[in-house]
Write a structure and sequence with these properties.
Its EC number is 4.1.1.104. Its cofactor is Zn(2+). It is an enzyme of class 4 (lyase). The protein is α+β, with helices and mostly antiparallel strands and 218 residues long. β7 and β8 form a beta hairpin. The radius of gyration is 17 Å and the shape is globular.
Length: 218
């Protein structure tokens, strides 16, 4: 895909996420890996609703700025996912309300932040890890993500928000949206003893769609 098309796609998806209230103000960032090993990423302090394709930050394979505006301070967390997940073609990080709320609950299992609530959550997100709180832009968050050894495509940053990778930008955006909706379901049903997918149903999904999940059933 051409550089121009990728820039336009980042702006299009960013605006869609912003207009639906999935990341407010100048929060959130998006990156896409390029064929030469570098990547495009949204600039620092930029609203996803008002991105300019020409001002997108272009980085080399080592995360150094090549052209465009200064990149988001969250470059370390994007870098960590690209380094540990060879299949990652794009990364989306939002401050979506229900996912942030989920990350603050005391009962959340860091190895499986959500149970297998729906088939599409399992198919698009697999399982979601929770990493401890670090201030925005802290390089230590990259070490925490690297510590997951590439087993998770979706990660919750405690008191901060989700960061999700996908094979393509569209896949990463759709998975992030699925994570947010599942977090919303969890909060709506919390304390009501809902029925989750059974181990047999989960095994059927895994076989049918060739899913590779971390070895940690909820």
């Amino acid at each position: 895909m051409s550089d121009t098309k990728l820039r336009e796609d980042i702006c299009r998806f960013g605006r869609s996420l912003f207009e639906r209230g999935l990341t407010p103000g100048s929060s959130g960032n998006i990156s896409v890996r390029l064929d030469d090993g570098g990547w495009l990423v949204t600039p620092t302090n930029a609203s996803l609703g008002f991105l300019d394709p020409a001002k997108m930050s272009r980085l080399d394979g080592n995360g150094r700025l090549v052209s465009g505006d200064a990149p988001t301070k969250e470059v370390p967390l994007h870098t960590a996912l690209y380094q540990t997940r060879a299949s990652a073609g794009a990364v989306v990080h939002l401050h979506s309300t229900h996912s942030v709320a989920l990350s603050m609950l005391p009962e959340i299992d860091p190895r499986a932040a959500l149970p297998a609530m729906t088939a599409y959550y399992v198919m698009k997100c697999g399982q979601t890890a929770l990493v401890p709180y670090y201030r925005p832009g802290d390089p230590a968050v990259a070490d925490a993500i690297r510590g997951l050894a590439g087993k998770y495509s979706s990660v919750l940053l405690a008191n901060h928000g989700p960061v999700v990778s996908g094979d393509t930008l569209e896949a990463a955006v759709f998975a992030t949206e699925e994570l947010e909706e599942t977090a919303k379901l969890y909060l709506l049903l919390r304390g009501l003893n809902p029925r989750y997918l059974s181990p047999e149903q989960l095994a059927d999904l895994t076989r049918t769609f060739g899913l590779v999940l971390p070895d940690h059933p909820h």
